[in-house]
Write a structure and sequence with these properties.
globular; alpha/beta; Rossmann fold; 4-stranded antiparallel beta sheet
């Protein structure tokens, strides 16, 4: 992966999420009685500025992908606010939301599953433009050829089908599809986790080049801290449906504050090479259907205090402007 100078991030907030929750009821019996709740996302708040890349990391099941799908309105929130370009998305009608969706696109983890197997690449890329009435048929075809070239594919591939491509090429097609409508925000949900390590670097470099070219804003979701460290401006660390730490990339990697973040950092070879002691977390991740009282991380934390078992820590400023939800810093 290459390092390149990045355009200055705007101070204008493009996306603002506040108190976002997604709870799934657990039903049992003939009458489908609600007997519990799975708290997939439980009070997440963050903002993303224009031109910025916000990385979201955490173990599997921490709520990263659910948060992404809530923001882009593939899921209905249980509670909370999502403001995009000044508009409150949770109160928009389907018609109003359709207009906003043009400016918010998603890149999925599995490129093959997200492509129609019986459609040529040209039809796949043309479909969004037909739905939104963008340009004439000739202009649409020119746009498709331009995008294929920009994502590193031969424009002649437009007549081929998804099964004729490798995994890395399919993901490039997925990226081109996300760019078709000229969006402002792209949410990338584990976009390189299914690819070989050498292909991962190529796709990450491509995403950075396209961000510079099209003035894009990214939400980049991954469990791979090395990838997040390379592409992000700021990083949010999630654990069991909540953000436990949020900071500028360099600050987070140099001085992680939350015990969970410290454990994640110690497990990354690139970071461990900086003479960090390996931290082994005890126990398993609790079930989101029965999260522990107080701080949900206290059952695995070596610094657990009595207050951690009863009071939920609030995400607030600690050292050097970093936001952390931990009683060690109150």
């Amino acid at each position: 992966m290459h390092d390149q100078p990045k355009a200055t991030t705007s101070n204008e907030t493009l996306l603002e999420v506040s108190g976002l929750k997604k709870h799934y009821p657990i039903k049992k019996g003939v009458f489908s009685t609600t007997v519990g709740t799975v708290k997939a996302v439980d009070g997440v708040s963050f903002s993303v500025s224009r031109g910025e890349t916000l990385g979201i990391v955490g173990e599997s099941g921490c709520g990263k992908s659910t948060t992404a799908r809530l923001v882009i309105r593939l899921l209905q929130e249980t509670e909370g606010s999502i403001r995009f370009a000044g508009k409150e998305l949770t109160s928009l009608s389907k018609g109003e939301l359709r207009g906003v969706r043009r400016d918010m696109q998603m890149i999925f983890q599995d490129p093959y599953a997200s492509l129609h197997p019986r459609w040529t690449i040209e039809r796949t890329l043309m479909e969004p433009m037909l739905v939104y009435g963008m340009g004439s048929r000739g202009e649409q075809r020119d746009r498709i050829l331009e995008l294929l070239d920009n994502v590193g594919l031969n424009p002649s591939y437009a007549k081929r089908y998804p099964h004729e491509f490798s995994g890395g090429q399919r993901q490039r097609i997925g990226i081109a599809r996300a760019l078709v409508l000229q969006p402002q925000l792209i949410i990338a949900d584990e976009p390189v986790s299914a690819l070989d390590i050498s292909i991962q670097a190529q796709v990450i470099n491509l995403l950075q080049d396209l961000q510079e070219q099209y003035k894009l804003t990214y939400m980049f979701i991954s469990h791979d801290l090395s990838v997040v460290r390379h592409i992000s401006d700021r990083v949010a660390v999630m654990y069991l449906g909540r953000i436990v730490e949020l900071a500028e990339k360099e600050k987070l990697f140099e001085t992680p504050l939350h015990p969970y973040t410290q454990a994640l950092m110690s497990a990354v070879p690139e970071v461990a090479g900086e003479k960090r002691e390996r931290i082994i977390l005890r126990g398993d991740v609790p079930s989101p259907a029965k999260p522990p009282a107080g701080c949900t991380f206290h059952t695995r934390c070596s610094s657990c205090m009595d207050i951690c078992k009863t009071e939920i820590p609030v995400l607030k400023k600690a050292a050097d402007g970093q936001l952390v939800a931990c009683h060690l810093y109150t």
